[in-house]
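Support request from a user on the community tier.

User writes: "When I paste my structure tokens into the form, the page sometimes reloads and wipes my input. The last time it worked, I copied everything first. Here is what I submitted, just in case something in the input itself triggers the reload:"
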């Protein structure tokens, strides 16, 4: 795999972000698109063309939210961000990590958010700064604590649960074929926390309760399509009981 392929993949939404959203990829792509101009629809005089925003600036906002849209208006120029490609992501939500830089260096905390598009993680209650939130005219402003993101490549390290010390990890396979994280110092397996499976819809998949509008498992198992050697028009004619009795006129090519 080429290095440019890794960099090209990081221009898109991260896989962990999509899993947390629990939304179709088509919806995320449609909500991110910024179209400034396109040809009229259903007009044969024009070829289908559209001018869209190609480069997006990812921040701590989710790609399908309104703050992300306001930060990526068409024509806005942001400084280019160079990312170190990570082949296998090893830090998930709910992991205990140790901070390596900043005023909270040496402290340990729990990962609250993972922003894979920028190689960021946000640790709950650590690496904070005061932020002034302004209000309307005539009202006092408010100051609140904001958690700044940290790079997973150089600013945090995963904590080994056997000795509660920071360590480097690598992915290995067990005898049963399961892929696990292993501490390179102690050789202990570091399990993936249950919070890593959390989405907008549920904390864990087992605690999710089906609603009326959900598609049930029995509906998914139903076979509703049987492939046939027919065109779409022939299939419609068979369903409606239409028979073709006309004989096509002979065609000659010179």
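"...and here is what came back when it finally went through:"
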């Amino acid at each position: 795999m080429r290095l440019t392929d890794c960099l090209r993949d990081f221009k898109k939404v991260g896989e962990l972000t999509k899993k947390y959203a629990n939304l179709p990829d088509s919806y995320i792509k449609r909500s991110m698109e910024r179209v400034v101009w396109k040809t009229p629809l259903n007009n044969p005089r024009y070829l289908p063309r559209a001018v869209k925003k190609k480069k997006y600036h990812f921040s701590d906002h989710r790609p399908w939210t309104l703050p992300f849209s306001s930060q990526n208006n068409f024509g806005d120029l942001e400084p280019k961000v160079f990312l170190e490609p990570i082949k296998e992501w090893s830090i998930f939500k709910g992991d205990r990590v140790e901070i390596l830089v900043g005023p909270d260096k040496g402290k340990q905390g729990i990962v609250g958010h993972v922003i894979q598009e920028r190689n960021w993680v946000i640790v709950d209650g650590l690496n904070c700064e005061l932020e002034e939130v302004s209000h309307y005219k005539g009202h006092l402003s408010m100051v609140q604590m904001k958690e700044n993101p940290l790079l997973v490549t150089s600013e945090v390290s995963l904590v080994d649960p056997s000795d509660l010390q920071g360590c480097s990890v690598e992915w290995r396979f067990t005898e049963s074929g399961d892929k696990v994280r292993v501490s390179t110092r102690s050789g202990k397996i570091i399990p993936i926390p249950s919070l890593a499976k959390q989405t907008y819809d549920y904390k864990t998949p087992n605690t999710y309760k089906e609603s009326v509008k959900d598609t049930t498992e029995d509906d998914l198992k139903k076979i509703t399509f049987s492939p046939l050697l027919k065109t779409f028009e022939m299939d419609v004619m068979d369903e409606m009981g239409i028979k073709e009795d006309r004989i096509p006129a002979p065609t000659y090519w010179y």
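Agent notes: The reload is a front-end session timeout and is unrelated to the input. The chain has a mean pLDDT of 85. The chain has six helices and 13 strands. Escalated to web team.
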